[in-house]
Design brief:
This protein has six helices and seven strands. It is α+β, with helices and mostly antiparallel strands.
């Protein structure tokens, strides 16, 4: 009886995997790569591959600004009134899964870096990973969702009540930032980096996306 029960559990796991999707994953856990592989990341960050990826991103964005199109099919840029960003198509490149994962950590680290005044600008809102079935392959999404630390202006004339907020009470930095890596069959497929800004009277205008790309490529 115990063996039968164990086998039924195993079959249930496989059945769930076959019916799973990104909205109903078979596994959904906390993403801890930034903690578990910090020493490994610091070594990678100082290497030539990391520098080459930063240079490539900066050059691609410069080309996009000049020609209004990306230089290659390996990258696309998003530019709407509410969202700015880019998508790296790793299927068009020769980077390994490890390199793609490290690149995601590099982008995250750049966003979380202190501001010019040394203060904390962003915090991690979500860090999760989902595994699911996608057509005839196993897929995984590793996601970091970062939000600006909203600090009110030090103006004693502004009351604490939300009803009295003014248009420039909060700085929003570059907006909310999503860094999501899609992996298919253990191969890096796509990395999406997007900044979504607030259009609300309680926030200052977002900082320019060019400044954010510059931050990513230093």
């Amino acid at each position: 009886m115990e063996t039968t029960g164990w086998w039924e559990q195993i079959k249930g796991v496989f059945a769930k995997a076959a019916d799973s999707s990104s909205k109903d994953p078979v596994l959904h856990t906390t993403l801890t790569r930034h903690r578990d592989h910090q020493a490994e990341f610091e070594i990678w960050r100082a290497g030539v591959i990391a520098q080459g990826m930063r240079n490539w991103l900066g050059e691609s964005y410069g080309y996009y600004l000049q020609h209004d199109r990306p230089p290659t099919e390996a990258i696309d840029f998003l530019d709407t009134p509410s969202s700015k960003g880019f998508v790296v198509h790793f299927a068009e490149l020769q980077y390994s899964l490890h390199e793609a994962e490290m690149f995601q950590l590099l982008l995250r680290e750049r966003v979380l870096a202190p501001g010019p005044d040394g203060g904390k600008r962003y915090r991690t809102q979500v860090a999760d990973t989902k595994t699911y079935q996608e057509a005839d392959m196993t897929a995984r999404t590793d996601r970091y969702y970062l939000k600006p630390v909203l600090v009110p202006h030090a103006d004693p004339g502004i009351a604490a009540s939300p009803d009295s907020y003014t248009a420039d009470q909060f700085g929003q930095g570059f907006g909310n930032i999503l860094i999501e890596l899609l992996v298919r069959n253990r191969e890096p497929w796509r990395l999406r980096f997007s900044a979504t800004i607030y259009h609300d009277r309680v926030y200052q205008a977002a900082e320019g996306f060019g400044g954010l790309v510059g931050l990513m490529t230093r």
